Amino acid sequence: MPLTAGPADTLPTLDNRRTHSVSPLISPALLRQEHPMDAAIAKTVAEGRSATVDILNGDDDRLLVVVGPCSVHDPEAAMDYARRLAAKAEAVRDRLHVIMRVYFEKPRTTLGWKGLINDPGLDGSYAVNRGLRLARKLLLDISALGLPVGCEFLDPITPQFIADTVSWGSIGARTAASQVHRQLCSALSMPVGIKNSTEGDVQVAVDATRAAAASHVFPGINADGLAALITTTGNPDCHVILRGSSAGPNYDTETVRDVLARQAKAGLPQRVIVDASHGNSAKDHRRQAVVAGELAQRIGEGERGVVGVMLESFLEAGRQDLVLGQASALTYGQSITDACLDWATTDDLLTTLAAAVDRRRG
Ligand SMILES: O=C[C@H](O)[C@H](O)COP(=O)(O)O
Ligand SMILES: C=C(OP(=O)(O)O)C(=O)O
Q: Domain extents for the chain?
């Protein structure tokens, strides 16, 4: 029997059938007004970006080091860490360009706490407006120490709220193949590292850097939070991060050489950053020190393809489980996502990496 259209009020509800609620989100412009950029911070951000680009292009022979917690869950502990790192970064600045990992968005394999922007109360209350405010304030406060910051970009609209404060960006292993994220990279004003997949596919990261270098047109939001069509010029400063995989590490010289050859074949600049954590350490923080030590050895012997190293590090070693709603039970300065190196070990590794650059200079 053919279906006939009835009056509008008899139509079934077709929309929002799985939406529980829709609530207001502050606009990027309002957040930027509440937590404004100033001239000193802008200088730190701009110099953080340009030094990174110079290292990526071989015009600065220092080593890029992206180091900091797997995720920020406690702004006070993050500031405590940032003060120590800022002092160390200053002490080795002639050999290392240090950027602090200040990650607010966590891509989960299945489920879990998704970061300070999504759930700043660590209790499942999802106060996203508060999360955005905390994130922007912390990024500005850390940059005000003269320490440039790096973030992973996960949600495609988050950058409008914070990207002006960020000197280096990352696209994670779970989103490297995503067209949405590649388009986003093409718009970002800072250099962006893109990871190999969790299964170990390195070509996906090479392809992503190639896609991000091109111009794209895609829907997004403007500074007022309104729907907008974005046309980008492309980002020539994207690069591959080798993070290992479920199959094991991939920071060996053969894999590095293979990735550099793939970049050359694609007409891309040849450069690689190694993430000492994740698949390269089997998420055992103690292994990160071994990976960084081996990289320091190779760099000291003249390795130039590896232009940077990433370390997951916090005040205390290891990690702890978060029970939602019980944040007060957490150990101060210890990760609630992946296991991190402690500060003392990090300090030693930064000294080791700086000495490796000295040796490479001969
Ligand atoms: O870096 C962080 C984690 O490795 C990533 O977010 C995935 O975490 P999960 O496997 O614990 O969800
Ligand atoms: C999520 C991260 O890493 P990956 O995407 O490599 O798992 C990270 O660096 O925080």
A: 24-361
Is the CB–ligand 1 distance for residue 112 below 6 Å? yes
In which residue are the tokens 């990027």 written? 28
Pairing of strands 217-221, 238-244: unpaired
Q: What is the full DSSP assignment across 63-106?
A: EEEEEE-SS-S-HHHHHHHHHHHHHHHHHTTTTEEEEEE-----
**Is residue 338 within 8 Å of residue 312, measured between CB atoms?**
yes
**Entry pTM:** 0.96
| Top mutation candidate among 106, 117, 152, 275 for ligand 1, by most atoms within 8 Å of CB | 106
Helices (H), 108-213: 128-143, 159-162, 179-187, 203-212
Is the confidence at residue 6, as pLDDT, over 90? no
106 lines ligand 1 (CB under 6 A): yes
Helix axis angle for 253-265 and 203-212, nearest 10°, is 40
Atom of ligand 1 at shortest distance to CA of 107? 6
Is the CB of 109 within 6 Å of ligand 1? yes
| Single-letter residue type at 135 | A
User: What number does the ligand 1 atom closest to the CA of 312 have?
Assistant: 1
Whether the predicted pLDDT of 296 surpasses 90: yes
101 lines ligand 2 (CB under 6 A): no
Q: Which two tokens stand for residue 43?
A: 């200088």
- In three-state secondary structure terms, 226 is coil
For the domain 24-361, what is the CATH code? 3.20.20.70
The yes-or-no verdict on residue 10 having pLDDT over 90 is no
Q: Is the CB of 300 under 6 A from ligand 1?
A: no
CA 173 to centroid of ligand 2, rounded, Å:
6
Calpha distance 272→277 (Å, rounded): 15
Ligand 1 pocket: which of 102, 109, 277 to mutate (most atoms within 8 A of CB): 109
ipTM over 0.95: yes
